Amino acid sequence: MKLKNKLGILGISLLAFACTDLETTNSDYLLADQYPENQEQAIRVANPVFARTQGHADWGGWWFLQEITSDEATAPTRGGDWDDGGKWRALHQHSWGVSTEAVEQMYRFVYETMPRANRAIELLELGAEADPEVQKVLSQTIVARAYFYYLAIDNFGDVPFPRTFTGADEFPSRTPRADVFNTIVQDIKDNIEFLPTPVAGVSASSINKGTAYALLAKLYLNAEVYTGTPMWQETIDACDMLMTYGYALDGSPKTPFLSDNASSKENIYTVPYDEDTFTGFNLHMRTLNYQNQLTFGMGIQPWNGFATLEAFYNTFTSNDTRKYALLEGQQYDINGVALTDADAEGANVVLTPNIPALLMPTNAFSKQQIRMSGVRVVKWEIPVGARENLSTDLPLFRLADFMLMKAEAQVRLNGAGAGDALINEIKGRSNAPLTGGYNLDEILAERGREMMWEGHRRQDLIRFGKFNNTWWEKTNTDTNRKLFPIPQFAINANSNLLPQNPGY
Fold it and tell me: Rounded to an integer, what distance in angstroms lies between the CA atom of residue 154 and that of residue 307?
């Protein structure tokens, strides 16, 4: 049976997607009564769901919506570069609409996944009772679906909530955000017992009990936003369960982001990017200056775009070792020779924290300003010879995040200072100044420094009531912007998705 295109879904084909940890191929014909009867067949059924994490860094729109809309990342228009119809400025200035590209991408990212997940779940249920290995893959698929619905309610609020493939409603309406929250929380809790027990530093890109408790902790942390009812103690409890599985802070803040980071005991759930077989991790291309090709001995020239906001850069103290990720000042080639830019009158390539304007036309700004302003981010290792895509596994969940989450929940329950031990453990690793009595504003600032550009900032700002504040080149304070609109293409396909989110 086919699920018709009424959610704004572009397609539901079960094409083969490579997935580093699973190393299987996928069949297009999985409806025979004998499927699935063993783990290998089960993985073939579920692979198209697990592989959807590939879209996080680029084509799924997720990273752009979480970071470019925040106070820590921007994509200035540099002369004729990075204009792209104003789509990046719209994200920064909170002026996006129902047809903004990243909003459309994010919606497709979720709702092209759902028929794959629902179909896989129905097929896996056929063999789950007879084979515990099939049951394990079924539970992993249910938790994967819950993860994507978490993304849906986080970004869009009330959302269509199909949970079947056979007989699915062709014109679904939207389910209240709180109802989706409650259902996916129960889905996770019902399936944890069937998931594999994680081994820290092994197979972080597969779903296990650690992934499930991490996802529960994220849902509980944001429960007040999603449902109106805070769940701080539940957040602490889920973090505590997560921490029983042997995860540990790496000795250096760099380690979770190395090219060979699969053995990091800090990373809990990752996207297993590969420069050849599982592509899409190209943030280095989007941020590095053109001449930084020579800094890293890259085989391709970067695109000279994304940068940090000056105010965010200034939150780091001079001796904070996390500043390794912030590329600022005179740039050098791989041999230590100072770089110059022939297209900027031969000027030295000096990256400056100050960006003079979000829109920098050539008739109003110098070539140095246009090409060199803004601190760039190299948080993820760029190996010599790097190409357009990196092979670094992208952490979606890592331990430092959950330590800060637990500290935040402790402070919200017990007042300033209740999370000091956890916060100072993280700051101590980075040689940042240790104090005490940390309040919520200080925790948000520390989350910014520790989790910089990892896709959490929009959610954090919303939870702390700061997303509608003003910052550099962003004056829109409309609280409706805490949710993105349902894209127009989806509403055109299904008017039951109305009413639209307020403000659009």
Answer: 25
